[in-house]
Specification:
The structure holds two protein chains of two kinds. By secondary structure, chain A is mainly β. In chain A, 0% of the residues lie in helices and 56% in strands. By secondary structure, chain B is mainly β. In chain B, strand 7 (67-73) and strand 8 form a beta hairpin. Classes of the chains: A mainly beta, B mainly beta.
Amino acid sequence: ILNVEQSPQSLHVQEGDSTNFTCSFPSSNFYALHWYRWETAKSPEALFVMTLNGDEKKKGRISATLNTKEGYSYLYIKGSQPEDSATYLCASGGGSEKLVFGKGTKLTVNP
Amino acid sequence: GAVVSQHPSRVICKSGTSVKIECRSLDFQATTMFWYRQFPKKSLMLMATSNEGSKATYEQGVEKDKFLINHASLTLSTLTVTSAHPEDSSFYICSASYNRDGVYNEQFFGPGTRLTVL
């Protein structure tokens, strides 16, 4: 059974601060690493899917990196805004393998 | 694109009754749908995977006779919680994906259903 861990569990930042969170996962039999953004009462929204060691992806102020050899991924948010407040989930797997999720990092951005 | 709806968003029922939750892919044909459950302060846990027209594959520890899954069309899957008990109270969420020439496709999630069994 895969164990996907995310830290921190929750985070409060001020508007304009930059922040980052961590997702760690078993590096053996790696297929893909997914980041989702989940706002309350909405569907989890896919942010990134990364498959190759060293991958870096960016969408606006949000970016992510992947290290498959050591089994971790970082999600960065530059200049946080209140609308970035959400729970950020990571999951390992996909394809013919099931997705295994971490518990998420709940981000609150205070105006 | 790739919108998945789920109905109802919230349901409260009495112990012993059955509850049906629908998951629909609105703008694509979902060859595979997934059902997850999330208990408070826990991760989303996969319950079962269903492919259109075939029986669902259940994860270890998930009772197939209690959680009935039907994937009758490429846009609809249903999860029926039979004879619900308070310990079945949880957040249930579905996702859908499609196969395209063997290319990996991500899962698109519905907004979830909060089930409370009294």
